[in-house]
Design brief:
Blueprint (H helix, E strand, L loop, with lengths): L2 H22 L3 H4 L2 H20 L11 H4 L7 E3 L5 E3 L6 H15 L12 E3 L2 E7 L1 H25 L6 H15 L1 E2 L1 H5 L3 H6 L4 H6 L1 E2 L1 H14 L23 E4 L4 E6 L6 E4 L1 H7 L8 H5 L4 H4 L12 E3 L1
Parallel strand pairs: 5-6
Antiparallel strand pairs: 1-2, 2-4, 3-4, 7-8, 7-10, 8-9
Length: about 325
């Protein structure tokens, strides 16, 4: 691509991103209007297309559907149309959806099976399920968008030279300062929106989300940061030289949050951005960030919301 085209595309991408950010800064009740949501969706689609065409840092590589199913323990295969199909064997709904969530967690990291939404019965055998290729490609494309968004934006969020702990705190504060909890979708029990908010894409493109959104955006940004051998942020490192911090998602029956292994104790430290964001903006809850930032398991599970420590699920 000629340089002038490259520069024009980058300029247009930045203009659209600025337009999107201005819309996201408007009052939440205005952003929730259907016409505004449609405008945001169109702008986001254009930004995604431009980011896929060219990037100042490097284009993210979307995985293939074949790569997507490789961790399904043989439960999924591809049919001749490229759809993801379950093998015959009387698998329960729970097994199918749990496997799909595990595959998405392993291969895409920042998306959810809820974004796929529907499993269809095979035409000739109701014990066999089909996930259409277009639905699987939707989550793959969303993961690609998030990866490209991180490549473009995280170097501006997390500066060179920060220590590991400084970088984590910087990301924590960035998210709770720039995104909001979607009280409207929760109070209205808006199932369509709540399913969309199970991944990180919705929060990055609309500015609002729920607990899973916070955890997955946190995961996306933290895992994109390159550290040197001393765990100092270094954006000049080649990818093969960089160290990255993996983020675990921790779940009870009604809530999900993030955790990172302490390199010295090898114990998980817990980061609940949802609770920090919902409460820390009130003077009454000034100490809530310290409670939900870098907490141990005993502290994070003091309340009923975070469940029984013995029954928590961990998605590494």
């Amino acid at each position: 691509m000629p340089n002038f085209q490259h520069e024009q595309i980058i300029a247009l991408e930045h203009k659209l991103e600025n337009m999107r950010m201005r819309i996201m800064q408007l009052p939440q009740n205005f952003r929730k209007k259907k016409s505004v949501q449609q405008a945001l969706a169109r702008i986001t689609a254009l930004i995604t297309a431009l980011m896929m065409m060219t990037s100042t840092i490097g284009e993210a590589k979307a995985i293939t559907v074949e790569e997507f199913i490789k961790d399904s323990d043989g439960i999924f295969y591809l049919d001749y149309n490229g759809n993801v199909v379950t093998k015959k064997g009387g698998y329960t709904d729970k097994t199918i959806w749990t496997t799909l969530e595990d595959v998405i967690n392993s291969s895409l990291r920042v998306c959810s099976a809820y974004e796929v939404r529907t499993a269809h019965h095979a035409a000739r055998d109701e014990s066999q399920y089909i996930f259409f290729k277009k639905d699987i490609m939707k989550v793959i494309d969303r993961a690609t968008y998030i990866e490209n968004w991180c490549k473009e934006n995280v170097p501006e969020i997390v500066a060179d030279g920060l220590t590991r702990d400084e970088a984590i705190l910087t990301v924590f504060n960035y998210i709770i300062d720039n995104y909001e909890y979607d009280n409207k979708a929760v109070s209205n029990k808006d199932k369509d929106t709540l399913c969309e908010e199970q991944g990180g894409y919705h929060m990055l493109t609309t500015g609002v989300g729920i607990c899973t959104s916070y955890a997955k955006v946190f995961r996306a940004i933290i895992e994109a940061i390159p550290f040197n051998d001393e765990y100092i942020v270094d954006w000049d490192l080649k990818e093969e030289e960089a160290k990255h911090i993996p983020v675990t998602l921790v779940s009870c029956e009604t809530h999900i949050w993030a955790a990172i292994e302490d390199p010295e104790t090898e114990e998980l430290r817990h980061y609940d951005l949802t609770f920090a964001d919902k409460f820390s903006k009130s003077i009454r809850y000034l100490d809530v960030v310290s409670r939900y930032y870098d907490s141990d398991l005993e502290t994070i599970t003091k309340d009923k919301v975070h469940g029984d420590p013995e029954k928590l699920l961990y998605y590494h």
